[in-house]
């Protein structure tokens, strides 16, 4: 994901988990869904507006893809640092 606001992404992600009725634990770099069991990494670089979500566990791949589709379908505020930096460099 590119050009996203990190704080808004976290809010949208939490809303998505709530909408899907998924209970989860969040650490600095990973999210663990309790039932069904699923764990993935989230890496956000808010200063540039980029992020990456990677599946850690090999199970429940379909649920992971559903979560990604739900997050992408919601509006996330943009981060304008990257486009503005291209104008000046």
CATH architectural label: 2-Layer Sandwich
What multimeric state do the chains show? single chain
What string, H for helix and E for strand, traces the elements in order? HEEEEHH
Total number of distinct structural domains: 1
Strand order of the largest sheet: 1-2-3-4
Strand proportion, as a percent range, falls in 15-25%
Radius of gyration: 14 Å
What is the tally of beta strands? 4
> Rough shape?
globular
Helix content: 25-40%
Q: DSSP helix count?
A: 3
CATH class: Alpha Beta
Structural class: alpha+beta
Sketch the major β-sheet: 4 strands, antiparallel
CATH topology value: TATA-Binding Protein
SSE map:
Blueprint: H1 6-19, E1 24-26, E2 30-33, E3 38-45, E4 50-55, H2 61-73, H3 81-88
Antiparallel strand pairs: 1-2, 2-3, 3-4
Short structural summary:
With 89 residues, the protein is α+β, with helices and mostly antiparallel strands.
Characterization of this structure:
With 89 residues, the protein is α+β, with helices and mostly antiparallel strands. It has a single domain (6-88), classed as TATA-Binding Protein, CATH 3.30.310. The protein has three helices and four strands. It has helices spanning 6-19, 61-73, 81-88, and strands at 24-26, 30-33, 38-45, 50-55. A four-stranded antiparallel sheet has the order 1-2-3-4, covered by helices on one side. Strand 1 and strand 2 form a beta hairpin. The longest helix has 14 residues, at 6-19. The chain is globular, with a radius of gyration of 14 Å.
